[in-house]
Amino acid sequence: MHKFNLVENAKDSLSHAIEHLGPVNQNSTGDWKRIIVDLAHVVELLVKELLRRIHPAFVFNNIDKYPSNEAFTVGADLAFTRLQKIGDISFSDADIKAVKSAREKRNEIEHFEFSIENHEAKVLVGQVLSFILKFAKEELELEWKSLYFKEGEKWCILYEYKVFYEAHQKSAQEKISENEIPTIECTSCHNDSFDLDNEECLICGHKEEVLDCEWCGASYIYSSCEYDEKACLCPSCEWEDGYATVHCEKY
After folding, report:
1. Average pLDDT, stretch 226-241?
2. For position 177, what pLDDT does the model report?
3. What are phi and psi of 151, to 5 degrees?
4. DSSP letter string over 104-117?
5. Chain mean position to CA 203
């Protein structure tokens, strides 16, 4: 019989990510793929573990099906919502952005084509890792930081990614403030750090075309739109247009 509880499962995925981790310029596309998928898995398992500690039924989509092993468990989004509403847990904007970045890139890897620049990947790993270590310690009382100095060089490299992200984020925010750079939310790291003038995120380096909404005139990043690529609407106006179409009987 082989068995992992949620914490053991999360730790194993973190260890697996570390096995593929090397200096940023030496990681292959396959390495980044495994690292990002594993870290996203760690996030999901840890938030489920906190739900389980509140009550095991909350881990399931349909709590009435508890304790069936065949019932579907919650995803990270629903887990976050339940922790806030039921567990009275507060998440910072940074926490939410880290989890969103990990989930979106994991979905891209698992369900579609996958591409990422070295710098962008390094920022994503550091961003998600910062959340994992903070959440593990503050909410679950898991002292995983101590493992950095017990498990050899790989753990030290992982820690460097966390330090890199936090230092790079601070530097970018100082640059934005000092130079009054106009920014919007980046579609990759979800920080408010996408330089509208240079069409590049000052934190993760993601580059993409910036467009102006034909309805409200607001600037938006091309990939932030979900529906009609020819509509030339920002996500907010796109949503309003879609809502009006679906609920046309109200108008």
Report:
1. 72
2. 93
3. -110, 15
4. HHHHHHHHS-----
5. 14
